[in-house]
Amino acid sequence: MRVMGVDPGLTRCGLSVVQSGLGRQVIALDVDVVRTPADEPLPRRLLTISDIVEHWLDTHHPDVIAIERVFSQQNVSTVMGTAQSGGVIALAAAKRGIDVHFHTPSEVKAAVTGNGSASKDQVTTMVTKILALQAKPTPPDAADALALAICHCWRAPMIARMAAAELKAAEHRKKFAAKVRAAR
């Protein structure tokens, strides 16, 4: 499975692509950080991110995209920019029929380090080890994008089993409701 990991942001947006192998083997294929100037108008910044992400999608052909879920931060403008960046990326994926999954920072940290409260340095160190990289990925947005992709590779089988179980449970509920109606 080829996974594109995205650490969304307006000023710095981390992008990565990894390939999962047997077991927990993951191979890094590409990583970069898209930067947009803070003094540029918002639509131009989003267009820059969109253009680069679309190029990545057309170049790497990921099977799925893993995006960091924005849930709370102190600075509302930062949250808005991060959400807008993530939305542009999710839209580009949807246009191509690529599944998008969102993971919280604590899910990513727990998957990569075993500790949902791990520091950025701990995440970077583990990403470097997991991917057998010669040097730590920098800036932190690059390491975070790789961590998101790794997290999804390792969580995808569980996500698929949960979706199948939920579908099966819904089918059982329908059958049971039909039996109850028929018995009345």
Automatic annotation (TrEMBL):
Q: What class of enzyme is it?
A: hydrolase
Recite the UniProt cofactor note for this protein: Binds 2 Mg(2+) ion per subunit.
Provide the cofactor list for this protein. Answer: Mg(2+)
What cellular component terms from Gene Ontology apply here?
A: cytoplasm; Holliday junction resolvase complex
Give the molecular function GO annotations: crossover junction DNA endonuclease activity; DNA binding; magnesium ion binding
Extract the CDD domains matched here.
RuvC
- Keyword ATP-binding tagged: no
Q: EC?
A: 3.1.21.10
Q: State the UniProt keywords alphabetically.
A: Cytoplasm, DNA damage, DNA recombination, DNA repair, DNA-binding, Endonuclease, Hydrolase, Magnesium, Metal-binding, Nuclease
Location in the cell reads: Cytoplasm
Principal location listed in the UniProt entry: cytoplasm
Reactions accelerated catalytically? Endonucleolytic cleavage at a junction such as a reciprocal single-stranded crossover between two homologous DNA duplexes (Holliday junction)
* Annotated active site: 7, 68, 141
- UniProt-listed Pfam families: RuvC
What exactly does this protein do? Answer: The RuvA-RuvB-RuvC complex processes Holliday junction (HJ) DNA during genetic recombination and DNA repair. Endonuclease that resolves HJ intermediates. Cleaves cruciform DNA by making single-stranded nicks across the HJ at symmetrical positions within the homologous arms, yielding a 5'-phosphate and a 3'-hydroxyl group; requires a central core of homology in the junction. The consensus cleavage sequence is 5'-(A/T)TT(C/G)-3'. Cleavage occurs on the 3'-side of the TT dinucleotide at the point of strand exchange.
Recorded hits in PANTHER family, A to Z, give: CROSSOVER JUNCTION ENDODEOXYRIBONUCLEASE RUVC
Q: Which family does it belong to?
A: Belongs to the RuvC family.
User: What's the protein name?
Assistant: Crossover junction endodeoxyribonuclease RuvC
What species was this sequence derived from? Mycobacterium heckeshornense
